[in-house]
Specification:
Layout: H1 3-24, E1 28-31, E2 34-37, H2 38-47, E3 53-61, E4 64-73, E5 76-83, E6 88-94, H3 102-111, E7 116-125, E8 128-137, E9 140-147, E10 152-159, E11 171-174
Antiparallel strand pairs: 1-2, 3-4, 4-5, 5-6, 6-7, 7-8, 8-9, 9-10, 10-11
């Protein structure tokens, strides 16, 4: 075989491999370290065609994969959480403390007078809306989960194992006796 024939065969082989890879790529989209199923990406792009994605994450909740598509809207984080079958189960939006409903603010201030609100998220699961709020009470940080009517559903105090640790690595411990369950079928509220 001459050199031109060898090069032609090599090029042909590369084309065949690339074509095969492209044909099987519809199973999942590789987004760096997280492999997001094609159905999830298609559902997101169909529902939010002009939204720019800033990142991806994957978590396993109650044995099911949850794929998070992270975006930024007006400099605030907004995360869409899907199951593998492209069911949207949750939208988590970072909001300003002043955007919290008055009844939620009143409930926080009643439970923790003189606290400062560090972070606030609006969490939507189907038709259910809740607020996850991180407050500073003295030297301690607490995470509160509140219903739309202001009822505190749960509260947890962050444990700070190391003064220099990142806030994202801090763990929370439950302060109340209420049972908290994962809302698996969040997109199925009726």
């Amino acid at each position: 075989m001459n050199t031109i024939t060898k090069i032609a065969l090599l090029v042909f082989g590369v084309i065949v491999l690339l074509t095969a890879a492209f044909l099987f790529a519809d199973e999942a989209q590789d987004t760096g370290k997280i492999e997001v199923p094609y159905a999830v990406m298609a559902a997101f792009q169909k529902s939010y065609p002009d939204t720019k994605v800033s990142g991806y994450d994957k978590e396993v909740v109650n044995g099911k994969n949850h794929f998070e598509i992270e975006t930024m809207v007006d400099k605030l984080e907004k995360t869409y959480v899907y199951l593998e079958d492209a069911t949207l189960v949750q939208i988590e939006e970072e909001i300003l403390a002043k955007s919290l409903p008055e009844i939620v603010l009143a409930s926080i201030n009643k439970a923790h007078p003189k606290c400062e609100i560090d972070e606030a998220d609006k969490i939507t699961r189907g038709t259910t809306v809740e607020y996850e709020v991180v407050v500073e009470v003295g030297e301690k940080e607490m995470e509160l989960l509140l219903a739309l009517d202001g009822k505190i559903l749960s509260s947890a105090q962050f444990e700070d194992d190391d003064e220099d640790s990142n806030d994202d690595d801090d763990e929370a411990t439950e302060d109340d006796d209420e049972d908290e369950e994962e809302d698996e079928g969040a997109g199925d509220d009726k």
